[in-house]
Amino acid sequence: MTSRNAAATRQRILEHARRQFARHGYTAITVKGVADAAGVSPNLITRYFGGKDGLFLAATQVEIPVTTSFDGDRSALGKRLAASIVERWFGEPGEDPLLVLQRASGERPEAAEALAEFLDTNSLEPLHHYLRDSGLGEAEARNRAAAIDAFVLGVSTRRRVLRAELGDRADLEVWLGATIQRLADG
C-alpha cells in the first residue's frame, strides 16, 4: 500500500467516523461499524488510530477560522460572525468535528473538557481580545464575549445537538447577526 493510499484510507475512515459520531454520539459507535462503513478492516482502525478512543480524538480535531471574523469594525461584528457560524452549520452536515464534540460532551468527560478548552482558546479569548481592542474596558469586553459565546453555544446546542431544524439559512443568519451585535454593543 502506498503512502498516498494509506492517507486516503485514513481520511475515508475519519470521514465515516465523524459522520457516525456526529449522528449517534460516542457510545453507540463501534470500530467495526465505522470500518464497515469505510470499507476497511477494523484492524486498520486499530493500526491508524489505536482503537475507538484514538479514532474519536482524531475525528474531533476542530478548526474554526474565527480570526477572519475579527477583521473590521465592531459595528459589523455580528454580521461577520453570523455568516461564519451559519456557513459552518450548513456547510458540514453530519461531519462537523465541533458537532461531534458537542454531542459527545454529555457522554465523555474528556469530550466536554476538549470542547470547553477549544471554545476558550478559539472563540472566547479571541473575541474578548477583539472587543477589548475595539475600545471596551477589560471587564466589559470579557462579559460581552462570554455572553456571545454562551448565546452561540446555546443556539448551536438547541438547533444541532438536540436535532431541531436549523430553519431558513438566510433568516437564521440575520437573526444571529442582530443578536450577536446587540450583545457586542451592550
From TrEMBL:
Coiled-coil spans in chain: none
SUPFAM superfamilies in the record: Homeodomain-like, Tetracyclin repressor-like, C-terminal domain
PROSITE patterns reported in the protein's UniProt record: HTH_TETR_2
Domain of life: Bacteria
Organism: Amycolatopsis heterodermiae
The keyword DNA-binding is annotated on this UniProt entry: yes
Keywords for the protein's UniProt record, in alphabetical order: DNA-binding
Domain HTH tetR-type: 7-67
InterPro entries: Homeodomain-like_sf, HTH-type_TetR-like_transc_reg, HTH_TetR, Tet_transcr_reg_TetR-rel_C_sf, TetR_C_16
Protein name, UniProt field: TetR family transcriptional regulator
DNA-binding region ranges: 30-49
